[in-house]
């Protein structure tokens, strides 16, 4: 039984209940994580729309955000949140290039949603500034 469904209407691919990849760890197969209620509409080469309800927080939080090629997006985080420019949107992946252009990060739709469903550029800049002040 799969909870992630894909339907193609024209050129837009709709992903419902985003699911990460299945895999094998220490010789044992495991199923990927499913984000019930989180969806994505992907138009390759143009845009990706993330929408739904994030239930992984204390209070379920709705989100609806659209990214286009050339927009800023998060590709990684640890103490700081690292952002870059979206250079490519495919049917199953989103590519983000670092600001210096040296490294490219290709993420699945699931990973892109995980990092960017609540994207706020001003809040990221403020958080990074505060973190850098105390390092």
Write the layout of secondary structure elements.
Elements: E1 5-9, E2 12-16, E3 18-19, E4 23-25, E5 28-30, E6 34-35, E7 38-43, E8 47-54, E9 61-68, E10 72-77, E11 81-89, E12 93-97, E13 104-108, H1 109-116, H2 121-133
Antiparallel strand pairs: 1-2, 2-7, 3-6, 4-5, 7-8, 8-9, 10-11, 11-12, 12-13
The value of Rg in angstroms is: 16 Å
Tell me the overall shape.
Answer: globular
Structural class estimated from helices and strands: alpha+beta
Query: Main β-sheet: number of strands, strand sense, barrel status?
Result: 5 strands, antiparallel
How is this structure best described in words?
The protein has one domain (5-133). The chain has a 5-stranded antiparallel β-sheet with strand order 1-2-7-8-9, covered by helices on one side. It has a 4-stranded antiparallel β-sheet with strand order 10-11-12-13. Strands 3-6 form a two-stranded antiparallel sheet. The chain contains 2 helices and 13 strands; from the N terminus they run βββββββββββββαα. The N and C termini lie far apart (47 Å). It is globular and about 40 Å long. It is of the alpha+beta class and 135 residues long. The protein has helices at residues 109-116, 121-133, and strands spanning 5-9, 12-16, 18-19, 23-25, 28-30, 34-35, 38-43, 47-54, 61-68, 72-77, 81-89, 93-97, 104-108.
Compact description:
The protein has about 140 residues and is of the alpha+beta class. Helices cover about 15% and strands about 50% of the residues.
